[in-house]
Specification:
alpha+beta; Nuclear Transport Factor 2, Chain: A
Length: about 190
């Protein structure tokens, strides 16, 4: 019978995940490469890339110039599956082009006989939720209007857009009958 969340497995893999996060923030390429299983079967799906095998993952890491110093873990979950496998799920925020983006990261960790705990499969994506849609709308609208949208003002703009979207949603819940005609000119 499969054992879930064996305490020593959870502790070991959590420590690996924390070390991976530190290496990512420090852009320690050698350490990051060492976390992945050295196999042609290792897979990493990123925000804009699909990497198959340790060689592709290593080449990607070596060529990538990143700055994740502003990355923060929002939520971390770990599911131990027996004594030799675990899945980590992480939500994070990161600053990209001056904007805070939410993202998700899932990693499948396996205990490899001669190497210890290694990532066999990983997936990273940026959010596509309501906040991201509002952020993209604010960015597009500002560009269309030729208005600069300073990073310091973005949270207030997004808060107002959330309120406006909520009010518009309430109005849209009440459909108008087809018999109503639009007035050509408003006269109070």
């Amino acid at each position: 019978m499969l054992e879930f969340n064996v305490p020593d497995v959870v502790a070991e893999v959590t420590a690996c995940c924390e070390a991976y996060e530190r290496a990512l923030v420090a852009n320690d390429v050698a350490a990051l490469q060492g976390f992945f299983w050295d196999s042609p079967q290792a897979i990493r799906y990123g925000v804009g890339e699909q990497l198959y095998g340790a060689a592709e993952i290593s080449a990607f890491r070596s060529a990538r110039v990143i700055n994740f110093s502003a990355r923060e873990v929002v939520r971390f979950e770990l599911l131990g599956l027996g004594r030799d496998c675990a899945v980590s799920m992480l939500e994070f925020t990161v600053v990209v082009d001056g904007r805070v983006r939410r993202g998700r990261q899932t990693q499948v960790w396996a205990r490899i006989d001669d190497a210890g705990w290694r990532i066999t499969s990983a997936h990273v994506s940026h959010g596509t939720g309501a906040d991201d849609a509002l952020d993209r709308f604010a960015e597009s609208a500002a560009a269309m209007l030729g208005l600069p949208l300073a990073a310091a003002h973005r949270p207030g703009v997004l808060a107002n857009l959330k309120v406006t979207a909520g009010l518009a949603g309430q109005l849209m819940e009440h459909p108008l009958p087809a018999s109503i005609e639009v007035a050509p000119v408003f006269t109070p």
